[in-house]
Structures are given as structure tokens and as C-alpha cells.
Amino acid sequence: MKELFDLTGKVAVVTGGNGGIGLGMARGLARAGARVVVAARDAAKSQEAVDELRALGSDAFALASDVTDEASVAALFAGIAVRCGRLDILVNNAGIFLKKPPQDTLLAEWQAVMETNSTGAFLCARAAYPHLCAVGGGKIINVASLVSVFGVPHAAAYSASKGAVLQLTRSLATAWAADRIQVNAVLPGWIDTPLTHAARQNVEGLNDRVVARTPSGRWGEIEDFEGIAVFLASAASDFITGAAIPVDGGYSVQV
Ligand code: NAI
User: Closest Cα to atom 21, ligand 1: which residue?
Assistant: First the structure.
């Protein structure tokens, strides 16, 4: 029987992987045996993440990268090829949030959100493709959102960008299935990360509303993303592609 969850010998890159959900996924991949590349902008924060991943047994390293910059993305994948000689797994996790009513959203704000969340995922997937083909296939995990499928009044740009990530996931899945590349999306619910810290502290009642509305009765933690990352990065999910998997404690299935 093939080893379902073993990532020994595999190379994985996680964008924005130096904190939050990306670091949670990176930990899972490292524990399963992958060599993890942390692709992010803050060098000091990336080094801390690398130290942690190395302590888990991964021969991890960091490469500075801005997913909105085509040249930076090209340099990232060229750097991985030089350093590792292969790439098996891409996690498109880098993302930014904008809380603003649609009528007040500036064009520059809209574009910044779309460029990071949607265009960034496209640029990285496109750059990863030849490397994944070169090893006979691979895995792409896109971090989308519950608002990829649900409306949200105060974050139209963000939800539009995450809707695009979900449709990108489905289209890449169909385009690259014959190349043995599986492309899936993870839809996080309310997760305790730097992205939600401010809202949790500043929006009155938010913390209690999330806890009350979530069947599991708590916020998600970054540890909740280790298992899904290993599953979608490993042979265990070889016949699953184009899927959108909520990681939300049941938030999206309760009226
Ligand atoms: P976070 O803010 O800790 O992580 C986002 C990471 O992306 C950071 O490391 C940030 O520096 C990086 N990043 C942003 N722009 C970048 C760029 N241009 N190039 C490279 N890296 C860049 O927040 P969190 O929560 O861990 O977010 C991770 C992903 O999960 C994001 O895509 C976010 O939209 C998504 N998400 C988070 C939810 C939550 O409740 N925390 C809910 C649904 C989705």
C-alpha cells in the first residue's frame, strides 16, 4: 500500500507562510516530512518560522517574495529550483483583508486586494506549473474563504477576491488534472490569527457572536490547518481535485 500521508522527499512552498494559517499548514507539511519553503516578505518573521520548522525536522528555508510582483514570483520559483531541484506542493496562502462598505471602497484598495488574493494565487500557480509537471504531478492548495461563497456586507472587495480564488481553483483543477496536478481550496471560517486580531478586539460582540454561531463553540486555531494541509498535499487526496473544503467548526452548515 502506498504511504498515504507521507511527504518525505517532497518540497512544498507556502506563500505568507511565516505566520497565521500559512504557518499552521507549514507545520503540518514539515511534520509529514516535507522540505518547506517559507515565501514571505518579512525576513525576520520568516526566519523565526524557519527555525520552528527546522525544529520539527524539516530542512526548511525562507525566500523573500511578494506575490503581487511577477518578477518576484518568477525569482521565487527559480530559487526553489536551484536550491531543491524540484517542487511538489504549492500553498497559495498569502492574503490581505479590507473591511469597508462597497460604496466607500477606493479603486486602489479594490485593486490591492484583488492583486494580492486573486492575482497572486494565479501568478504562483502559473509559475509552479512547469515544476510540478517536471516531477510528474503535484498539489496546489488555495486558501480561499467562507466568503468565497457567502456574501458579506462590509468586505465586498475581499469576498470578490476570494470568490475568484475558488473559481481559479476549479478551473486549474480541470485544466491540469491530466498532468496529475490536484488543485483544491480550503475555506477557513473564523480563525484566530493576526488578520482577525484587530476585529476580535475592536468589533463589539464579535468574539461572542462567532463562538455562539459556530457549532464547535470556538474560534479556529492555526493548528486546525495542519491536518487538511497534509491531506491535500499527500497521496491520500490523489482523486480529489477542484474541491472546496470548509475548515470552520461547522459554521457554514448551520442556519
Ligand atoms: P495573516 O495576516 O497572519 O497571514 C497572511 C500572510 O500573507 C501574512 O504573512 C502576510 O504577510 C502575507 N502576505 C500578504 N500580502 C503578501 C504579498 N503581497 N506577498 C507575500 N505575502 C503576503 O492572516 P491569516 O488569517 O493567517 O490569513 C491567511 C490566509 O487565510 C489569507 O489568504 C486569508 O485571506 C485567509 N483567511 C483567513 C481567515 C481568518 O479568519 N483568519 C478566514 C478566511 C480566510
Answer: 16
